Amino acid sequence: MATNDSVNILNSAYLAVEYIDSFLPDNPLQQPFKNAWNYMLDNYTKFQIATWGSLIVHEASYFLLCVPGFVFQFIPYMQKYKIQQDKPETWEKQWKCFKTLLFNHFFIQLPLICGTYYFTEYFNIPYEWEQMPRWYVLLAQCFGCAVIEDAWHYFLHRLLHHKRIYKYIHKVHHEFVSPFGMQAEYAHPLETLILGTGFFIGIVVFCNHVILLWAWVICRLMETIDVHSGYDVPLNPLHLVPFYAGARFHDFHHMNFIGNYASTFTWWDRIFGTDSQFIAYKEKEKKQQLMTKKAN
C-alpha cells in the first residue's frame, strides 16, 4: 500500500511539473543544441562519443569550473569571502596539484571512461535526440545520483579516516589544510577509485540516456569544486539545494580532519553526530562576532 502511495505521489509530481513546463517559453538554445547533438551523432561513432566526448566534458567542465576560485585569489575584494584567510594559496601548491590532477585524469580516470561505451551497449542506453529525457527528469535523476553518491561518500570517506589506513591513502588529499577548487580531485589513485565508485552507482540506477552521464559529471564537478573552493561566496545558487553542505562545511573538514564526512548534503553527519565539532565551532564564531560588535 505504501509503495502504491509513493508511486502515485511521484506520478502526480511528474504531471504537475509537466503541466508547469507547458507554460514556460521555448528555450532559445534548444534548437542549436539539437542541431549540434544530431551533427555529433551523424559524424562520430558511439565509441568516440562515449569515450572522447565524456573525456572532453570532464576536462572542460573541471578546469572551467576551477577558473572563478583561481581568479578570486588575485581580487582583493574577494578575500573577505575566503574562509581560512590566514592560509593563502601558493603557486608551488597549485602547480603540484595540477601535475597530480593530470596524472589522475589520464592514467586513472581515462581508463574508466573508456568503459563508458561498453556500459551503454550492455544496458542498451540510447544516444538519439528523440529519446533524451526532459530537463526536469534529468534534474531529478542528477539529484537522485547525488543522494546515492553522498551516502557512499560519507561511509567510505569516514572509513578512509580510520587511523589504521588514513596515512596510506586519504592523507594525500589532506595535504592542503586550506583547500582550493582545483584540489577537489587531488587524491591518491586508490581514493580516486574507492570514492569514485559512488559516482557510478547512480548512473547504473537511473541512466536512460547518455546525456545523463554528462549532466551528472557536470553536476558532481560543480558541487565538489564549490565545496573545495575555500570561498563562501554569497548568492551562490547551489545554496538553494535543500540540505546542501557548501564550502564552509567541507572547509572545516580540511581544517579539523575530523567530522563533516559527507560530500554534498548534511543529513548523514547530522544523523551520526559527526558534525558536532563543526556546530561547536560555528557557535564559538558567533560569540566572537557578537563580542567584536559590542566592543566596536
From TrEMBL:
GO biological process: lipid biosynthetic process
InterPro entries registered for this protein in UniProt: Fatty_acid_hydroxylase (IPR006694), Sterol_Desaturase_Related (IPR050307)
Protein name (record): Methylsterol monooxygenase 1
UniProtKB keywords: Membrane, Transmembrane, Transmembrane helix
Ranges annotated as spanning the membrane: 60-79, 100-120, 135-156, 192-217
Fatty acid hydroxylase domain ranges (all copies): 144-274
A Pfam family reported for this protein in Swiss-Prot or TrEMBL: FA_hydroxylase
Species this protein is from: Anser cygnoides
Subcellular location, record wording: Membrane
